[in-house]
Design goal:
Layout: E1 3-7, E2 10-12, E3 18-25, E4 33-39, E5 46-51, E6 57-59, E7 67-72, E8 77-82, E9 91-99, E10 105-108, E11 112-116
Parallel strand pairs: 2-11
Antiparallel strand pairs: 1-3, 3-8, 4-5, 4-9, 5-6, 7-8, 9-10, 9-11
Length: 118
């Protein structure tokens, strides 16, 4: 059973920073691509950032230069450092682990709320 547990969400003023964490258990963490997604009220879920199993990052255009994804395979944890937050970043942020080949799987955390407001 794979479990992903996010933490680090909260309320922050525009221009502020937050760091989200996602701790994984029950799988070979280093084999999985790890991604952060977000869903705002009334909108579809969108990919924010992904770290391949090799550690290469990719970002949505809307967060490039402001967000940084990183992973610590020794701690089975992926992070999302969010700087210069904007009100439009307000959403539920969810962690995803994905692998297409054995041991294949697609797993989600429960999500953590990020609210950017003055």
């Amino acid at each position: 059973q794979v479990q992903l547990v996010e933490s680090g969400g909260g309320l922050v003023q525009p221009g502020g920073s937050l760091r989200l964490s996602c701790a994984a258990s029950g799988t070979i963490f280093r084999l999985y691509a790890m991604g952060w997604y977000r869903q705002a009220p009334g909108k579809q879920r969108e990919l924010v950032a992904v770290s391949t199993s090799g550690g290469s990052p990719n970002y949505a255009d809307s967060v490039k230069g402001r967000f940084t994804i990183s992973r610590d395979n020794a701690k089975n944890t992926v992070y999302l450092q969010m700087n210069n937050l904007k009100p439009e970043d307000t959403a539920v942020y969810s962690c995803n682990a994905h692998r297409s080949t054995w041991p294949a799987g697609d797993y989600w955390g429960q999500g953590t709320q990020v609210t950017v407001s003055s």
